[in-house]
Every structure is written in structure tokens, then in C-alpha cells.
Design goal:
Strand order of the largest sheet: 34-33-29-30-32-27-35
Shape: rod-shaped
Radius of gyration: 56 Å
Number of strands: 37
Oligomer: single chain
Structural class: mainly beta
Strand content: 25-35%
Largest sheet: 7 strands, antiparallel
Number of helices: 2
Low-confidence stretches: 366-379, 541-556
Helix content: under 10%
């Protein structure tokens, strides 16, 4: 019969108290780690000191009863703890691996705790490295198994750049700092600002103002904005709110005859019209310059649509013009507008006392005819004057209003309009003229420039009869003047060349050319100055009456 080898055994819950050297024992039942059954389902071995050690048993072997390399779905019902020992397959692989809250399954590393994070934390100065030309993908569906929606890659074999591809990139932090060069291509947005190619614009629906503020406190009036190169401002109004403006240019030009416009809608070859950003200031017959126009890049405006901002031009284009392209406009039409400087000032307290003024070129002035746009005429020699209007009305660059005064120390005439010792006078248009190369004095002349005072004696106490050239003198006052217009039995008389002051008390007498003196027996009810010391041309050397040093001289 076969021999039966038995070792010590027990169905209790305690391990053997002692075992001899090499002696074995077995505790039956379903064991678990800890608790009252922590020694069940184990085989024990005694050492040379009679100490008891667990060395085997189904508690341990049950953990290994599964296919090598397979852990996913394996259970251990024999072991009340449900423990499983990972056994690698021949390729030293296991199908799933769980460490704390992390699960490594196939190509997926996932966290098992609710909303658990996955943290990569290298020791010390160690780094989390992604090899060259390896894309870090984002998206790919709920399980990350689909194609990535966005990637980050260090493109070693291509551009040698860190490249973001796929979906849009948003930085949700309060600040993004770039320590070196930032290059952004395509259509980019920063806040409400859009940057595309060489255009900086506001985003649609985000207002129509762009602020450039060099001061860190924001929207203050401090700091400097420095623009290198030429500055072109397109639009209808340019406002400068500074209190002091300096310009190095010794000559400032206004009313430039050349400007540019930006093409807003792509124009094809063979077109006869172009849409621009602004048509203000452009007139029919103005010239357009661009290589796409016929006739060596030059054409003429034939019609203007202010609503659509469309310019119709002569002929057709020989090539297309893309948007954002600038074309040159040469203003070749007399717009009949003024040129100069307008200003605003207050004459008192309140907005109602705000007044506009102007000084500059009056384009209309006095023209040689009434022809032309705006009835400004054809601009003869007497037109286009420098003027000053303190209370001006400015409409469409045309100024109207009463001219102001000129306060200066003197006036110089240009060469050819004067000679040594010249004399100035005003002609019938109000133009101040001057003599040119006056001659040496002569014994007589036809006319003499003199300043005279004109007085009207009215409401006379009795009708008088006087002739032109008679002298009317008043008793007591000694005032006298020469009759300008003959009067017959009238109660009013105009006197010129008046000396002295007439009153309304004393009698009047007539001194005729023959020297006879007649008492007019009439007292004026009023003596009114019509003008005082007004210059006049007069002819007197060949006949007339003169007064000098209160002495009468007569010549017949």
C-alpha cells in the first residue's frame, strides 16, 4: 500500500504555537489578511529555533491561478481578500496594471478616482520629455481613441519650431508673457483687436475705436507715442486734443491736391468702376493713378456714387485690383473751396457763445465772371484774397461772414507795384492800390487828393437858396463849408470841406463867388456829420474857392 505522509493540521484560526526544525503544519479554512482568519489556508514551517513561518498554502497559490499576462477580469474567490498576483507572460507583459488611482490599460493611462488628476512630477531638476517630432495630441473623442483634434509638436526634422495645429488655442490666464520675438501669422485677435497681414482693426461688433496708450495706468493722457516713417490719416475728421502742438516742417501744406484711397471690393480686369473707402473730396474729372488702369495707369473720374462709395472712371481696367490696395487720386478740378485755418473760441459763458473764425485764402473773393461751380467765377486778377473772418460760417470748406480788422504796423507792396514815395488809394472795388514810379512835382495838376468833412444842416428855421460852390458860414462859431448841391428855398443843405463845428443856435450867412455876403436869416435845427476827413479826389486849381489860415482866397 502507498504510504501517506501527513503534517500537522488544524481547522482552527490560530497558527501553530511552535514547530520543530523542518516540521510543517497546515491551518484549513478560507483565510484573509488580518482578522481572525489571518492564519487560515496557509502552510507553516518551523526553523531551527522552533519559530513558525508561513511558507505556502492555497491562500497564496490561489492568487496565481490565472493565465500568465492576464489580469483584466481575473477574480479570486478562494481567497477572501480577492488578492491576485501578477504573472508576466513570455513577453514580460501584463494586460492591465493598476497603481493606486492610476490604470494603465493598452495605450491608455487613466485615473480611477472621481475627477482625479494625473500628475507628472520628475524628481529635482528632472523634466517631462517629449521626443523630437512626436506630437502631443488633444481631443480624440471621449476615450481619446479617435484622431486628435489638436496637436503640439516640436518639429525637429522640419521647421525646428514648436508647432500648434488643429483647433484654436486660447490662453485663459490673466497674462501671457513672451520673452523674445512673437510672430503671429494669418488673422489674429487680441482682445477686441484684429491683426491680419498689415492691418490692425477692431473686431466686428466691438466698437469703432482703437486706443494706443503708452502709459501703464490706462487711457491717460501721459506718455509718448512715436511713429517712425510717414503718417497718413484717412477719414473725414482729425481731432487733436493736446494743448500744445509743434511741427518741425517750416511750411505746412493744406488742401493737398494728391491723396490716396483704399480699394474695399476686389476689382476685376475689364471693370469701369471701383469701390473705395471714402469719396469725400473727390470730384468728377479728378485723375486716378494705378498700373491696372488703362492709358498707362491713368484714368479720369466720370461719376461718383456717395452711397456705395463707388468711382466710375473712363475706359476699363487692364488688370484687377485686390482689396486693401491703395490708388492715388490727383484732384484736377477746381472745387471752389477756401484754404486756411479755422478756429473756435468763446465770446462769453455758455455754449451759445461758441464762435467759429477763419483766416486764409478766400477762394471766391471777386471773380471776373459768375461762371463755374459754386458761382465762384473764373478767378480774375481781383479774386483769391487773404482774409480774416472772426464770426465765420464754414460749410463744405466755404467760408462766409463779415471780414474782420487787420492790426499791423505796416504794409509792404511787392516789387513793381510801388516806387520811392508812392501814394496809395482805394478803387471802386475796395482794392487798395498804389502809384508806380511817381514823377517829380509839377506846377499844376488836374486832381488833388484831399480829406474833407461833410455835414448836413437840416430843419432850417427858414428856407434858403444857395448855389454849388457857395460858402455857408455861421455867426459866432465861425464854422463854414462849401455847398455840395444847389438848394432853392429848401430847409436842408449839404456842406463839404467843413471846418469848425456848426450849432443849432446861431444864424447862417452865404458868401458867394463874387465875394458878396448875404444873410440867410436861418438857423439849423440839426447839424449831422455824414463823414469826417474822408479822402477825395478834387479838381480845384483851375477854378474854385480855397481857405488857408482863416483867410479867403478866390480864383475866377
Amino acid at each position: 500500500m502507498a504510504s501517506i505522509i501527513r503534517i500537522k493540521r488544524s481547522s482552527g484560526t490560530a497558527k501553530p504555537a511552535s514547530l520543530n526544525w523542518g516540521e510543517m503544519a497546515y491551518v484549513t479554512g478560507i483565510g484573509q489578511y488580518g482578522g481572525t482568519n489571518q492564519y487560515k489556508d496557509r502552510v507553516f514551517l518551523g526553523d531551527d529555533g522552533t519559530n513558525v513561518h508561513p511558507v505556502a498554502g492555497h491562500y497564496y497559490t490561489s492568487m496565481m491561478e490565472h493565465t500568465p499576462g492576464a489580469l483584466n477580469g481575473v477574480t479570486n474567490s478562494r481567497n477572501s481578500d480577492g488578492g491576485i498576483v501578477a504573472i508576466l507572460d513570455s513577453s514580460r507583459k501584463i494586460d492591465v496594471w493598476n497603481v493606486d488611482n492610476l490604470t494603465l490599460d493598452a495605450n491608455t493611462l487613466s485615473s480611477t478616482d472621481t475627477d482625479g488628476d494625473i500628475i507628472f512630477n520628475p524628481n529635482g531638476s528632472g523634466e517631462v520629455m517629449v521626443p523630437d517630432d512626436t506630437k502631443l495630441g488633444f481631443g480624440g473623442g471621449a476615450n481619446g481613441t479617435a484622431a486628435a483634434d489638436a496637436t503640439i509638436e516640436y518639429d525637429e526634422n522640419g521647421t525646428d519650431e514648436l508647432r500648434f495645429a488643429g483647433a484654436n488655442v486660447r490662453f485663459g490666464t490673466s497674462k501671457v508673457t513672451v520673452d523674445s520675438q512673437l510672430i503671429v501669422g494669418g488673422n489674429s485677435s487680441l482682445g477686441n483687436i484684429r491683426i491680419e497681414d498689415n492691418i490692425i482693426a477692431s473686431l466686428a461688433g466691438q466698437g469703432n475705436k482703437i486706443f494706443i496708450d503708452p502709459y501703464p495706468d490706462g487711457l491717460s493722457n501721459e506718455g509718448d507715442v512715436i511713429i517712425k516713417g510717414n503718417l497718413q490719416v484717412d477719414g473725414t475728421t482729425t481731432t487733436v486734443n493736446s494743448t500744445q502742438t509743434t511741427v518741425n516742417d517750416p511750411i505746412m501744406m493744406v488742401g493737398d491736391t494728391t491723396s490716396t484711397r483704399t480699394v474695399m471690393t476686389a476689382m476685376s480686369s475689364g471693370a469701369s468702376a471701383v469701390v473705395v473707402d471714402q469719396v469725400t473730396g473727390i470730384a468728377v474729372n479728378d485723375t486716378l493713378l494705378h498700373s491696372s488702369f488703362s492709358a498707362s495707369g491713368i484714368t479720369t473720374v466720370t461719376a461718383i456714387n456717395t452711397g456705395t462709395k463707388t468711382l466710375t472712371f473712363q475706359g476699363t481696367s487692364v488688370a484687377g485690383i485686390s482689396t486693401q490696395t491703395e490708388i492715388t487720386v490727383v484732384h484736377a478740378t477746381d472745387t471752389n473751396t477756401d484754404r486756411g485755418l479755422g478756429f473756435t473760441y468763446n465770446t462769453g459763458i455758455g455754449t451759445a457763445n461758441s464762435t467759429d473764425g477763419f483766416f486764409g485764402l478766400d477762394d471766391s473773393s471777386i471773380a471776373s465772371s459768375t461762371a463755374g461751380t459754386g458761382n465762384h467765377g473764373t478767378h480774375g486778377d481781383n479774386s483769391r484774397r487773404w482774409t480774416y473772418v472772426p464770426d465765420a460760417t464754414i460749410s463744405n470748406s466755404v467760408v462766409s461772414g463779415t471780414k474782420g480788422f487787420l492790426d499791423i504796423k505796416g504794409i509792404y507792396y511787392q516789387s513793381g507795384n510801388f516806387a520811392s514815395g508812392g501814394v496809395v488809394w482805394f478803387d471802386d472795388t475796395g482794392l487798395q492800390r498804389s502809384t508806380n514810379a511817381p514823377q517829380t512835382p509839377v506846377i499844376t495838376s488836374k486832381q488833388v487828393l484831399t480829406a474833407i468833412t461833410k455835414v448836413t444842416l437840416s430843419s432850417l428855421s427858414a428856407g434858403i437858396t444857395v448855389a454849388v460852390g457857395d460858402i455857408v458860414k455861421q455867426d459866432s462859431t465861425g464854422a463854414f463849408g462849401i455847398v455840395e448841391t444847389a438848394v432853392t428855398g429848401g430847409n436842408s443843405v449839404n456842406l463839404i470841406g467843413v471846418e469848425g463845428t456848426f450849432n443849432t443856435t446861431n444864424n447862417l450867412r452865404r458868401e458867394g463867388q463874387s465875394g458878396a455876403i448875404a444873410n440867410l436869416s436861418s438857423v439849423p435845427g440839426a447839424a449831422t456829420n455824414v463823414y469826417i476827413n474822408k479822402p477825395h479826389w478834387t479838381s480845384t486849381l483851375d477854378g474854385g474857392t480855397f481857405w488857408y489860415a482863416a483867410k479867403q482866397w478866390s480864383r475866377h
